[in-house]
Structure prediction request, 524 residues.
Amino acid sequence: MRRMKLGMAAVAVLLAGSLTACGEAGDDDNEGVDVDVKEDAAEDFDEGTRMRELAEEGKVTIGVKFDQPGLGFKGATDDAPSGFDVEMGKILAADLGIDPENIEWKETISDNREPFLEAGEVDLVLATYSITPERRAVVGQAGPYYVTGQQLLVRADSDIDSLDDIRGTEVCSVTGSTSLENIKAEGATPRGFDTYSECVSQVLDGAVDAMTTDGAILLGYAAEQPDDLKVVVEPFSEERYGVGYSLDHPEMCEWINETIEESFENGQWEEAFNLTLGEAGVETPEQPELDPCPAS
Amino acid sequence: MEAVFSNFGEYLDAFGVTLALFAVSGLASMVLGLVLATMRVGPVSVLRGAAGLYVTVFRNTPLLVIFIFMAVAAPKLGYTFRFVEDVEIAGWNVSAYFTRACIALTLYTSAFVCEGIRSGVNSVQLGQAEAARAVGMTFLQSMRHVILPQAGRAVIPPLASVQIALAKNTSVAAVFGMAEATATMRAFNNNYADQRVQIFLLFALGYIVIVEIISFGSHMLERRAKVA
Prediction:
């Protein structure tokens, strides 16, 4: 018995490593949105703009998350990431005349999104990048292309069903995230982990009472284990995902907004959503209103 | 700058958690390490082997893996340590997360403490142990009255290094549910993207102060223990 427990512990440790690899929503072999890659795109842009440079180079580097099912996710064996953020990246690149194969996807975590943009390591960031005034002081953020809100993921047998129940409980999320700050303000003890998948396993094992982050991500996990997990509480924050760009190239803002607007009109935005978050059971939201670009 | 100064309470709380993790696991690892070292240099071969095995296992395992084991694998086996939350001493109680973090840090650090003490014991000439033996002391008596007091001098520098490493290793707990200094730094960075460098420097300063205090303490001990 003892020996078996130890054996199981060893297996659990191994599993913990591979867990990060599973837990995806919609990374089946779908090819994503059919983007129509523009030809001779470079001529559409004025000389000297960053868009023209990228179009002429024929490649672009985009920073996305690699650990958020449905938004930006790349499994250990995947060649390219998948998710709504990724599809939006493809739509933007297509407008520059760049094939999805010529996009270099770089993993950006919450901590390095601004440094990567400032140093020019990436040209664009689409990484569940909530628009905030503090971030806009150092980088540009166009959009939003998606608006979501924070919710709670609990075990199916949990009693928590309103925000008041959360006071005095332990709630996990990713270390340093805005969600964790918000839940602390609600009176819960924040428990930070490195990835969302570790957090889900804490909820399943009963080590914490709930997990919190943007509803879209939680629904992806709940859809995978509908018997064990459920999403509760109406969204209690508003996160507006924007496209990050460097302030060295302020001209990119208008172009990003125009391209997003175009994708709203020609149905690509909705298609991208349905192929990714939509598969996890998230209803297609209304198209958000874009912020005007700062006057340059 | 103002990101930290306008939230200075949070900054201090964060380092408070760091210090609490350090103090609890530091003490526990010294005790466990001393026991292990005594076993390792002792005459009972079973204990010697057991302590040797412990050191081999825990010194050779990355701290992160021990943390994953305590925080992710143990709850899977049903050990969430939530029972400690019901224990209340003088109005204080500790969380299961704090307990598991301290256990992980203690398991890891005590292997190094054990080896540090063993190096000190080995620095005492064999003749000392033989002399103690000759006057009829038992093994534990000779350890207590003859070997350890002399070894004590030699172990201060290596043990100070081990404890300094521990103070910084507490940062691993940041991604295992503890809102200590490193976790709070990440939260500040997330909220105040325009002040990253200052935030980083101020948190680094906090660690430097802690480590300086430990090394100052060790210098004082060294001077006190010096043979005139």
Q: What stands out?
A: Chain A has two domains: 41-147+240-280, 150-232.
